[in-house]
Amino acid sequence: MKLIIAAEKDDMEGLVAARFESAPVYFLVDTETGERETVRNDLTGDDPELGLHAAQLVTRKGARGVVAGQFGPRAKKALDFAGIKTYAVRDYTVAQAVGDYNKGRLSRFEE
Q: Percent of the chain beyond pLDDT 70?
């Protein structure tokens, strides 16, 4: 399965971003093969559509799950509509998030 992790920097040992839609970097990880791709988020700032644009990126990349500290209401609604699962973590590195996802230890994000 493809999983997107919102990250503070382009480093698997860097922290998961506090907010999905404004993360500087996204890691696309195939949890079955271990392959990964880094995607820069060029859409930052106060744009009210930021969450929708970030959710569209997830769907274009074919991810079925997203990990972040939290999700804005527009992003969450768009991800839910697309059937993409959302997981919330705090003080995790990207590598820890992938590991705990693979072990079934991540908590689903609830508003």
A: 97
